[in-house]
């Protein structure tokens, strides 16, 4: 999804679309980056508590729940 946002912003500039459209796309991209950083931090905290073996399962669980608007580690 990241590549499509970057491509949208790039072609928006190339086609001469309004700067506000590109700025909006950049804000969406930045918010997704921030969400991914939060997931990584939570996964790292989980690894420190429970060990590395389960971290991939935790990340998959978080990613499945993200599309429902939840970022929760169980």
Automatic annotation (TrEMBL):
The keyword Signal applies. Residues 44-74 are annotated as: Disordered. The keyword Signal applies. Residues 44-53 have a biased composition (Basic and acidic residues). Residues 62-74 have a biased composition (Basic residues). Residues 1-18 form the signal peptide. Keywords: Signal. This is Secreted protein. It comes from Ceratodon purpureus (Fire moss).
